[in-house]
Amino acid sequence: MSDDTSAAIRDTRKDWVVEHRDMYLSSGGAQGHIMDITPVGGRSFATHCLVKYVGRKSGKVFITPLCYADIGGEVVICASKGGADHHPAWYLNIREAETVDFQIATQAFRATWREPEGVERDKVWAFVTDCHPFYATYQQSTDRVIPLVMLKAIEPVPVFKAEDATGIRQF
């Protein structure tokens, strides 16, 4: 997918993503976890988490809402960036960290992370695209292999608040 096409997708989703994040944060996770995303090719009962991470260059804290799937007790997030030809910033930032924080509904955790490989990746990809079919469409629009990140909770942390974020995610 060209950078121009990627930019057009980001522009159409920007307001929705910001509103979604703000709703999730302001409700303490009571709202925003389950959402109907059929207008963008998703399911009517789609699951979303928040991921909190530190910018590798800025040192600022960012909170990003993402669709997720749960497989084998691990949370799986997909670094699709709508099928863009380059990885999303959140993914590049997580790759530089040993741990990452995530929130599902009203519970938040610190987690280790890993990327599945080989046969395991194929199985996880099939599961994720069954849960969120639009990821398969995104993969078809780019030559890069869209990364999957698996999060394993290691300890609870406080639920995220808007003021935790010291940076504003660029979409």
TrEMBL record:
GO terms for cellular component: plasma membrane. It catalyses: oxidized coenzyme F420-(gamma-L-Glu)(n) + a quinol + H(+) = reduced coenzyme F420-(gamma-L-Glu)(n) + a quinone. GO terms for molecular function: coenzyme F420 binding; oxidoreductase activity. InterPro entries: F420H2_quin_Rdtase, Split_barrel_FMN-bd. It holds the Pfam family F420H2_quin_red. Belongs to the F420H(2)-dependent quinone reductase family. This is Nitroreductase. It comes from Novosphingobium resinovorum. The lineage of its organism: Bacteria, Pseudomonadati, Pseudomonadota, Alphaproteobacteria, Sphingomonadales.
